[in-house]
Fold each of these.
Amino acid sequence: MGPVDNFRLWGFPALGEVAHYRAGGNPLWFGYLELKEMQSTPSDAGEQQLHPWYVAHTRPRCEKKLVAWCGRAEHASELPTYVSVRKYRGKEATFHKPLFPGYVFLRLSIQGKREVMQSDYVANLLVPPDQVEFEAQLAGILQALETMEDVWLVPNIGVGTRVLIQRGPLAGLEAWVEDRHGPATALLRLDFIGQAAAVNVSVEDLELV
């Protein structure tokens, strides 16, 4: 299990955070993270793939609001999320949390860019200069969310060894590694926002690049 930040229950439940409660039973370990598939808005896939990627730096606690707004405006958006299960007053509460707080990833036309900037949820809209690299890195992180049990946010990418994952559901992906006692921790980078997702990968499954 990777490191878990100290979740502040700012949406519990009055401020709009979706929570599900279950009384009784055998509660999960406090702070246990269970992955949830990414939240995305529907779009015409063929048309949207022609548009460039943008990184929306949202206003505080506006990631999900921006995704919902994009859905209504028919703009493609990606918000990778995980599920945090917490115990609160004898009950279990499940919170869907953005993996990268403050960021939503969008595919936009020129007109769509103007519309997003006029919304109430975006502080800044950035364009990754290397679209191919950005899409490949984001795809790797989304693949990890779909296939790995433990993925968590690494706020700052440290200096490590670049490796190729040889086996398992992430085989073929390149990553940067932080050494640990026992399994290594592979950092799946999203360079444009200076962050990474981390997964546990055995050192036997890594090859130097």
Note: Residues 1-127 form a domain with the Alpha-Beta Plaits fold (CATH 3.30.70).
Amino acid sequence: MLSVLSGVLAFLDQHAGAISALSTVVLVIITAWYVRLTGKLVVVNQNQLDQSKKAEADARRSEAQSRQQAIMDLFRIAHRLRSVLANLPRDKQRAEQIRRVTMWPETDVEILESLASSLGRPFDLNLLTIIPALRSIREKACEVQAVNRFTCGSRKIDHPEISGVISIVIDGIESARRQR
């Protein structure tokens, strides 16, 4: 066993230059292979980064478009509500007019609630205070419209309350429009 080991050492000693050169060539080949793989990884990572940036920009653009559409929907509904509210009577002498006003659909108020939560400040604060008033106005106006004109039954409909709520709603809508 010792003779084999001394034979191997003698061989290595005798061919040290060639073994060193061969080892260097192998290391150069391995290093070149690693350089090539690293280059491919850099390209793949750069492509992923570019795709990520593009996706982020697309998401931001889509979010901005969605927000803009939501604001447009908000003002479209607000305009429709404002038109209806403008047709509601503001004094007792014209209270009978409420029977001829076509009220907004309840879905408009539901859409407003959805828009309030999606748009955030300042819309959410304004809309969340206006929505209950809109529901109240719609409910009271629909009650008035449903009651027979000549017999109010035992239920008294307090028209000044409606006028007061109308004023609050109009002020709220005006305030929301000024903040835009």
Note: Confidence is low (pLDDT under 50) at residues 149-159.
